[in-house]
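Section 3.1: Structural characterization of target chains.
Under the original work plan, the team committed to producing a structural model for every single-chain target entering the pipeline before any wet-lab resources were allocated. The record below documents one such target. The sequence was received from the expression subgroup and is listed exactly as submitted; it comprises 289 residues.
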Amino acid sequence: MTIAMITGANSGIGRGAAVDLAGKGWTVYGSMRSLDKGGKLRDMAEAAGVEVQPVICDVTDTDSVNRAVAKVTEASGGIDVMVNNAGIGGNGVLEETPLSLYEEVMDVNVYGIIRCTQAVLPQMRERGSGCIINISSIAGRIAALAQSPYVVSKWAVEGLTEGLAQEVAPLGIRVAMIEPGIVRTAILAKNTEAPNESGAYDAAYRRLFAFYAAGLANPGHPSEVSEVIYEAATSDDPKLRYVCGWGGTELTENRAKISDEDWVALGAIEDDGEYVSRFSELFGLDISG
């Protein structure tokens, strides 16, 4: 029996993964900051005929994380798979984004992963087995326009995960990261603000929202991510990175092919129509709306 703990299980990818993985026979503990936030998770689990155990865990609070991991470990005997999913968005160009927003996003998206991983690694190391799965983003591979705080956090997740994978490989612990493109989740509905105070970055924000509008016309489903999480944890031929969702493959593969100079030149294009055309040439995605 696989025992999994999934952070941020009250919504979006985390909620879908908790229900889907319970449906595969896993014993799943879904964490959230307050049990009051778990109504939809409970309803989805009941509708699917499965059980997901709710656990209170605020990933920005080390004591809360340690209590949650201890509670799950006591109830289950140990955590086999830790899915670090809890995350928040963060729009803004660097000039106009307050440092406080960077700090808030980093605390959840990066330090939250560190807290949860530090809490669970000792038991995995002692057993000589276990799996850590970090939910990153295509924004961890490509500097998505006008989302500086989010991009910074996800690039940090990528480096953190690469390093961790090597650190624990000799200990029998598997590490993977999932890099979704656009997936229909509540985080997108919440992520609509943009601190465009000067007006100097109008084009950047227009292009940001045009990109998401294009993806939301045909977004990935959270169940896609669930399947990739399952594969990452169970495959006989595991990988470090897994891509899914709208635009995931196109953006990651094509960014690796184009030069840094082409990337910067794309941002310098003034006309929106020309920008959309060049974006399509470089990445094979239509963001014209």
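Residues 99-127 form the longest helix (29 residues).
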